[in-house]
């Protein structure tokens, strides 16, 4: 597969599914290199732009696992609109911390949080239609859509993200030094 992005300024979109925004924060940790990134790409839907829906993009970065119906919708929308889709961080790559609930029955989780938990004053499991339905299990994103690249780590470091984006945008083969790869 030739994943070289076109010569014009590529468009970049990002989204957080069931994650903690730590992977987005890691991207911000590239510090002053953010100015270089602004030169390299045009931002579409990201927390920087506050655009709510993703347009056609060259690169989509996805943080977080797939835990509810809204996550599925956002992820499928990104897959539809992004030429290259990247799983960023442990939660997106293998379910990470959110997937720790997979060893318990969903109803038991809801009961523990909303009914039986310490300090619960008005036991009630919320069922407002505005609230996305939880899936029985949390899934890594590759179980829902095709993923082109995976960046492990909780979170992947700023240097890892920066190196990856530079290599991808310039059409180089993605090849990290071992020091930039970790699986926590
Ligand atoms: Fe947060 Fe780690 Fe998951 Fe990234 S991989 S969203 S930093 S818990």
Measured as a percent range, the helix fraction is 25-40%
Q: Low-confidence parts lasting 5 or more residues at pLDDT below 50?
A: none
Q: State Rg.
A: 18 Å
Give the tally of β-strands.
7
Enumerate the distinct ligands.
iron/sulfur cluster
Span between N and C termini?
29 Å
Number of H/I helices? 6
| CATH topology type | Rossmann fold
Total separate domains? 1
CATH level-1 class? Alpha Beta
Order of neighbouring strands in the sheet with most strands: 2-1-3-5-7
CATH architecture: 3-Layer(aba) Sandwich
Strand content: 15-25%
Write a concise keyword list for the protein shown above.
184 residues; Rossmann fold; 7 strands; elongated; binds iron/sulfur cluster
Structure description:
With 184 residues, the protein is α/β, with parallel strands linked by helices. It has a single domain (11-171), classed as Rossmann fold (3-Layer(aba) Sandwich). The protein is 30% helix and 18% strand. It contains six helices and seven strands. The chain has helices spanning 22-28, 33-40, 69-81, 90-94, 106-115, 158-170, and strands at 11-16, 42-43, 57-63, 66-68, 82-88, 134-139, 149-151. The strands form two sheets. Strands 2-1-3-5-7 form a five-stranded parallel β-sheet, sandwiched between helices. A two-stranded antiparallel ribbon has the order 4-6. The longest helix has 13 residues, at 69-81. The protein is elongated, with a radius of gyration of 18 Å. The mean pLDDT is 94. Bound molecules: iron/sulfur cluster.
């Amino acid at each position: 597969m030739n994943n070289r992005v076109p010569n014009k300024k590529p468009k970049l979109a990002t989204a957080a599914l069931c994650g903690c925004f730590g992977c987005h924060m890691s991207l911000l940790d590239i510090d002053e290199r953010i100015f270089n990134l602004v030169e390299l790409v045009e931002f579409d839907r990201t927390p920087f732009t506050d655009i709510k829906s993703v347009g056609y993009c060259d690169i989509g970065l996805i943080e977080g696992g797939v835990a509810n119906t809204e996550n599925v919708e956002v992820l499928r929308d990104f897959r539809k609109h992004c030429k290259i889709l990247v799983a960023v961080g442990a939660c997106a790559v293998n379910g990470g911390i959110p997937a720790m609930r997979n060893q318990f029955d969903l109803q038991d989780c809801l009961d523990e949080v909303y009914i039986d938990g310490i300090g619960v004053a008005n036991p009630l499991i919320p069922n407002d239609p505005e609230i996305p339905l939880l899936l029985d299990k949390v899934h890594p994103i590759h179980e829902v859509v095709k993923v082109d690249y995976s960046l492990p780590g909780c979170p992947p470091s700023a240097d890892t993200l920066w190196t990856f984006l530079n290599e991808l945008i310039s059409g180089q083969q993605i090849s990290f030094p071992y020091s930039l790869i970790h699986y926590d």
